[in-house]
Amino acid sequence: MGFRCVLHGSFRKHYAEIVRAKRVFEAAGIEVLAPKDEEIAAVVDGFALFESEKGADPRMVELLYLHHLKRLGADGFSYFVNPEGYIGKSASYELGIAQVANVPCFFLEKIDDHPAYVHRNAVWSPEDLAAHVVEKGSLPAPAVHPNETAIHRLWEDLMVPGSVVAAGGIIEYDNGRSSDEREILLVKTHKWGGRWSVVGGKVRRNERLLDALVREVKEETGLSGRPGAHLATFDQIRNSGYYQATQHVFVDYVVRADSKRVTLNEEAQEHLWIPAKEALASLDIEPNARHIVELYAARAA
Known about the structure:
Blueprint: E1 4-9, H1 11-27, E2 31-34, E3 40-44, E4 47-50, H2 58-66, E5 76-81, H3 89-100, E6 105-107, H4 126-136, H5 149-158, E7 163-173, E8 183-188, E9 196-197, E10 199-202, H6 209-221, E11 225-237, E12 247-257, E13 270-275, H7 276-282, H8 287-300
Parallel strand pairs: 1-2, 1-5, 5-6, 7-12
Antiparallel strand pairs: 3-4, 7-8, 7-10, 8-9, 8-13, 11-12
Helix pairs in contact: 7-8
């Protein structure tokens, strides 16, 4: 996926500096998810709006902006453009959300108008931060001052790493052949760097696993599926450490489809029906999905 970032700051006061930081990061190959490439069209009650946002509820605009944080991925970060230490009201709100969501946060200058706790290696110019990412292939390592260990523990207690449960699995179509020759559905997606994967997604709050699985299959493929045998449950924690990376728990099943008429949503770009053994031998499958396809193939043999 590569490095991604969301830029924050006072659009009303410092939009030119925010745009300059955006250009620096983009020139270094870092994808900037927000803000857009637009000029500010209006300021309503101190809240800056782009042309496409004129007339919109500022609360909706802010929440849509915050949703970009969910797209950052494991190598994503927030960068706060705060000349002379000034963040502003909206960016202060965004900082709080980013911190409890475990998003690494970096700043142009030390914060002056907000009592937020940030580690002592969090202040970087856009040029220096971009150069570090390009040279090291990683974000700067956090550093906790010895005198701030108690504050740091309180900050950690507020973060919400938790666990994300995903339901997915092997969608199979019974074409009348033996079980080891049945075709399974794989999808190719940008989310996995153009590799093939299985269908699945996050379980929603107050949603049962199998209900989530049926929903995800319908949303991503248009197929109506019947969950069958459980294949595997496993977890993964990437980049665990200072930011308490989220534990992802994967629960995978066999799903029987009554049709091969697939209608993909925006999450995938291609699909393929193929026997499991042939897929393992010929396709570039992302690691977690390959593990599931191998289990399915062994079960069918």
